[in-house]
């Protein structure tokens, strides 16, 4: 779900970028967010995901492999951050998602029976599930590609935001705005879906480009603090209180935090029956989420044999296409990274 504050973000606080504008910059990508995008987008006309000869879904691997190569070809230093154990306060949202996916799976079957392929594809996307095995496969493929990944103790966006605040990466990347509430100085959206995309329920295609939102500029444009932004998120709904407060949208929430700048006093005044847990607890989680310093950002020469083993031998990808992509990846490393062994120091020379 993520927090939906798009409505109050001023147009001048959103900068449209080209991929080339991110050349030389390290970006921490919310891995689960990206993998779900790949699972939803890379499908057959009837909504069926890509699968190998044993019936195992491979859409996530296809998206991860080819999209990551595309980003590296533009000189973007990508690192993927994976979610850890979800906090207890997220349990209601997790159950809600399970219910939505279950209902979508039923509607998919009904649409297939009716021959409504457009609806079938839509419901199939909603029913996408990311399993533990899929996550392990994704990490293994990234290892083979020489692309670093970080295991967050809890929320991946919180970890990505922390890495950006430390300066280990230039920005966090996700479709959700939660990274801003977690304090990411920069958020890049649309990074893993850039390109020509079909609008839902319409036979219309649009060009999607990366968007940059800088936290300081956003807060200045809105005339609020990060703490007030967190409260806005709590009022409209987050993963930790999915329903928000009844009748309060982003604009009303913005007016409320400006009228009562003492955020803790405002939180104490909220109706407790609107929350699955204390709003103060959600507020503190955004301020101080579990994060780790136990990671090493190191980019390595790709292991051609291992990539081929994973994609072609194990999952029936096209040998020719994979070989061509590997050559593109190796060329991108040579052109942009200039060396076989790339450590953290090289990435962050200013």
From TrEMBL:
List of residues binding Mg(2+) 1: 30, 83, 157
Co-factor note (free text): Binds 2 magnesium ions per subunit. They probably participate in the reaction catalyzed by the enzyme. May bind an additional third magnesium ion after substrate binding.
EC numbers on record: 3.1.-.-
CDD domains (UniProt xref): H3TH_FEN1-Arc, PIN_FEN1
Signal peptide as annotated in the record: none
XPG-I domain sequence ranges: 143-224
InterPro entries linked: 5-3_exonuclease_C_sf, Flap_endonuc, Flap_endonuc_arc, HhH2, PIN-like_dom_sf, XPG-I_dom, XPG/Rad2, XPG_DNA_repair_N
Keyword Acetylation in record: no
Keywords: DNA damage, DNA repair, DNA replication, Endonuclease, Exonuclease, Hydrolase, Magnesium, Metal-binding, Nuclease
First-tier enzyme category under EC: hydrolase
Names of required cofactors: Mg(2+)
Region of interest (Interaction with PCNA), ranges: 340-348
Family annotation (SMART domains): HhH2, XPGI, XPGN
Matches recorded under Gene3D superfamilies: 5' to 3' exonuclease, C-terminal subdomain (1.10.150.20), 5'-nuclease (3.40.50.1010)
Pfam families from the UniProt entry: XPG_I, XPG_N
Job description of the protein: Structure-specific nuclease with 5'-flap endonuclease and 5'-3' exonuclease activities involved in DNA replication and repair. During DNA replication, cleaves the 5'-overhanging flap structure that is generated by displacement synthesis when DNA polymerase encounters the 5'-end of a downstream Okazaki fragment. Binds the unpaired 3'-DNA end and kinks the DNA to facilitate 5' cleavage specificity. Cleaves one nucleotide into the double-stranded DNA from the junction in flap DNA, leaving a nick for ligation. Also involved in the base excision repair (BER) pathway.
Family label: Belongs to the XPG/RAD2 endonuclease family. FEN1 subfamily.
PANTHER family referenced in this protein's UniProt entry, alphabetically: FLAP ENDONUCLEASE 1 (PTHR11081:SF9), FLAP ENDONUCLEASE FAMILY MEMBER (PTHR11081)
Record's subunit section: Interacts with PCNA. PCNA stimulates the nuclease activity without altering cleavage specificity.
Name of the protein: Flap endonuclease 1
Source organism of the structure: Pyrolobus fumarii (strain DSM 11204 / 1A)
């Amino acid at each position: 779900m993520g927090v939906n504050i798009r409505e109050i973000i001023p147009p001048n606080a959103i900068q449209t970028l080209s991929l080339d504008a991110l050349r030389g910059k390290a970006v921490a990508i919310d891995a689960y967010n990206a993998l779900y995008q790949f699972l939803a987008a890379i499908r057959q006309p009837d909504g069926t995901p890509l699968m190998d000869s044993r019936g195992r879904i491979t859409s996530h691997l296809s998206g991860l492999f080819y999209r990551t190569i595309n980003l590296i070809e533009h000189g973007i230093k990508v690192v993927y951050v994976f979610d850890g154990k979800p906090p207890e306060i997220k349990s209601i949202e997790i159950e809600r998602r399970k219910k939505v996916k279950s209902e979508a799976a039923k509607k998919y079957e009904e649409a297939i029976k009716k021959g409504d392929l457009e609806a079938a594809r839509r419901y199939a996307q909603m029913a996408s599930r990311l399993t533990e095995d899929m996550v392990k496969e994704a990490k293994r493929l990234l290892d083979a590609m020489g692309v670093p990944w970080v295991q967050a103790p809890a929320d991946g966006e919180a970890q990505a935001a922390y890495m950006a605040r430390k300066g280990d990466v230039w920005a966090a990347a996700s479709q959700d705005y939660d990274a801003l509430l977690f304090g990411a100085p920069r958020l890049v959206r649309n990074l893993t879906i850039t390109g020509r995309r079909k609008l839902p329920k319409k036979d219309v295609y649009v060009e999607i480009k990366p968007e940059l939102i800088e936290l300081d500029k956003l807060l200045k444009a809105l005339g609020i603090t990060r703490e007030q932004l967190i409260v806005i998120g709590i009022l409209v709904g987050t993963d930790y209180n999915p329903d928000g407060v009844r009748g309060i949208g982003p604009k009303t929430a913005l007016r409320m935090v400006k009228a009562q700048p003492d955020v803790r006093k405002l939180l104490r005044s909220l109706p407790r029956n609107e929350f699955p847990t204390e709003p103060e607890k959600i507020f503190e989680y955004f301020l101080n989420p579990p994060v780790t310093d136990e990671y090493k950002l190191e980019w390595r020469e790709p292991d051609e044999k291992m990539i081929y083993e994973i994609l072609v031998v194990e999952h029936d990808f096209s040998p020719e296409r994979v070989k061509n992509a590997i050559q593109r990846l190796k060329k991108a490393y040579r052109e942009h990274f200039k060396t076989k062994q790339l450590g953290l120091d090289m990435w962050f020379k200013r």
